[in-house]
Amino acid sequence: MYDFLHITDANPMYDTFLATHRLSTDYLESARKWFNPCVETIVKHSNSASPLFVSINGSQGSGKSTLADYLTTTLTRLHALNVINISIDDFYYDHEKRQDLAKDIHPLLTTRGVPGTHDIEQLRKVMDALSLGHPCTIPRFDKASDNPHPVDQWQKVTHKIDVVIVEGWCMQIPAQLSEMLSPAINHLEQQHDEDGVWRRYVNNALQHYQDIFQRFHLSFMLKAPSFSVVQQWREEQEQKLRFTTPKEQHGRLLTTEGITRFIAHYERLTRHALAVLPAITDMVFILDERRNIKQVDINTVNLKVSPKSSNPIVFTDLDGTLLDHHSYSSTKAYPALAYCHALEIPVIPITSKTYAELIPIRAALNLESPFIVENGAAVYIPKHLGMRFIEELEDKGDYWTYSMAPKRTQWLKIIDKLSATFADEFCHFESMTPIEIVNATGLTFPQAQLAKQREYGEPVLWLSTESRKAEFIEAATSLGASPILGGRFIHINGQASKADAMQWLMRQYNQNSHGKHFVSVALGDGPNDITMLNTAAYAAQIRSPAHEFPVLTRSENNAPYQTKFEGPAGWNEYITTQILTIKKDIFYG
After folding, report:
1. pLDDT for residue 342
2. How far apart are CA 99 and CA 537, in angstroms?
3. CATH of domain 33-302
4. Is the fold of 33-302 the same as that of 305-404+497-584?
5. Which residues of 429-465 are buried (b: 16+ CB within 10 A; e: fewer)?
6. Cross-strand pairs, 522
7. Quick one: three-class SS letters along 58-72?
8. What's the burial of 327, exposed, middle or buried (CB within 10 Å: 0-12/13-18/19+)?
9. Is residue 234 within 8 Å of 266, Cβ to Cβ?
């Protein structure tokens, strides 16, 4: 399958590499067997005016820096490529800066390692300079002193680079949704982050790493068998540091107890990475407990849903569809989301949620596409997309907004009138406290506060019988509303629907297509998704734990796909089996 280079124990070009990492020549035979597919892939894709960016992820002690150095040595010596090997660790803030973070935000931030303790803007500037072929200086961090090396010891780049390798334990890890941050998962979180301030800061910081992660062309992962082996690996790593650290600085190195506390800072996101990264990484090296590679999983993805001339746009409901009905987690949909991003397929939330709710959700899911709020009442289009419009749109800062329904005040007046007839039979968001919304929805308190910030419709929580519910809907309709049944609430809105908003946005994409033709793909689970699912070119009904599939009116020859799995798992099922072709090669060396 691969044309491997021949390596002998006497090959001198690896002498410095072996000495630096304190390795025997046996390592070279293993590297030839397992890592040369990476070399061949990099060489194949490195024929460009700008550098090829390669990411390596792995837990502490998994061998990231060793792999990065092996690739660098081989690509430089054998293929005559100009390679820069960077560790994200070299971009740690200095000790003083982390002390300031500890004082201002949370004491745990004094310890380097987690997202939020890197100077991510400095990394961004270095990547920009390397991309443009400009001279730059790359920092170096001294872990023994817990501070960067003096600037005159930093790496200076003055020539064009062919390949940039960046390794780090948190590379390519997607942020967690805020609902996934509870409960605490270890003693460190239980005792020192009881209120979750540190976890939220780290997770919010990780969201800002995502646009950098998007810039990588290839991704590799060294996958540990479990988090439990990380302690042993980290101890071995610390032992190596003792050989390269002056004796007078050994007191700064970690003891066994220190390592246990240190890696606890990494546990949450390391476990998250082990769960979600293998499905969205180009090559995954499966390690055993002794760090021997057992196999390599190679992932590739292609479109299969539509003709080559068509480009799918995915319109997705959130609650019960892309977000789990109970936990609001979307972890099980991460592989499909990553593939959509890789193929530049827009994923457009179309939801009953508000603008205020969508902003953090889109950031957590790494979405930069337009979005549709409050059951089709308004479409928000990021200005950076550069779209041009025939209609006049409202300027909302970073977005253009197209309203398709009257504002909320009109519907609150109707609800006031309905209160006379249906007193004590319902409550609605305007009248509910954030705590009451938390109890009714399972949202966190901050999310409930965002959910109250509605611009167009008003969610009503029905408390009485089904027959009275039908009478309420009829009365609201007679007063000029167009009620929509959602997964939990009756939404009192105007006549705008998810289908109307989807069709309007599809026209914008096709008018700004530059020769492309777009087709709509819709995913939803509830009654308020019916119009969208009936209208889209392709449709998937996501299985719900709360109700049966709503009845659609699509033609028999274009029937909706009904998922076997619920919520985000069903979302992933449909995208990866019906929209995309996912191929996994398993290589055993």
Report:
1. 84
2. 55
3. 3.40.50.300
4. yes
5. beebebeebbebbebbeebbbbbbebbbbbbbbbeee
6. 315, 539
7. ECCCCCHHHHHHHHH
8. middle
9. no
Q: What is the CA radius of gyration of the chain?
A: 27
Contacts of 411 (CB under 8 A, 6+ apart): 456, 457, 458, 481, 492, 493, 494
Helix (H, G, I), strand (E, B) or coil at 142: strand
Both structure tokens of 80: 């005559």
Report how far residue 503's alpha carbon sits from residue 102's, in angstroms, rounded to the nearest whole number.
Answer: 49
Low-confidence ranges of the chain (pLDDT < 70): 1-11, 240-254, 305-309, 487, 589
Sequence-distant (6+) residues with CB within 8 A of 106 are: 193, 197, 198, 201
> pTM of this prediction?
0.74
Annotation: CATH topology of 408-492? Threonyl-tRNA Synthetase; Chain A, domain 2 (3.30.980)
pLDDT for 135: 95
Q: Report the chain's terminal Cα–Cα distance, integer Å.
A: 10
pLDDT, residue 2, reads 34
- Give the per-residue pLDDT at 6: 42
Separation in Å, CA 509 to CA 157, 361, 387, 513: 41, 23, 8, 6
Look up the CATH architecture of domain 305-404+497-584: 3-Layer(aba) Sandwich (3.40)
pLDDT tens for each residue of 5-22: 444 444 688 988 988 888
Q: What is the pLDDT of residue 251?
A: 63
Q: According to the 3-state scheme, what is the secondary structure of 362-402?
A: HHHCCCCCCEEEHHHCEEEEEHHHCCCCCCCCEEECCEEEE
Output the six-digit token pair for 312: 């799918």
Tracing tokens 């280079």 back to the chain, one arrives at 5
Tokens 């819709």 map to which residue? 522
* Residue 107 preceded by cis peptide, ω within 30: no
> How many C-alpha atoms does 357 have within 13 Å on its Cβ side?
25
Alpha helices in 151-265 (DSSP H): 187-192, 197-207, 210-213, 230-244, 256-264
For residue 245, the model assigns a pLDDT of 66
- Residue 228: DSSP 8-state: G
Calpha distance 417→476 (Å, rounded): 9
Tokens 């972890």 correspond to what residue?
331
* Amino acid residing at 303: L
Q: Which of 350, 325, 317 is nearest to 567 (CA)?
A: 325
In degrees to the nearest 10, what's the CA dihedral of 128, 130, 134, 140?
100
**In angstroms, what CA-CA distances link 415 with 108, 412, 441?**
48, 5, 21
Length of the chain: 589
Query: What local confidence, expressed as pLDDT, does residue 10 receive?
Result: 46
Domain coordinates in residue numbering, the chain: 33-302, 305-404+497-584, 408-492
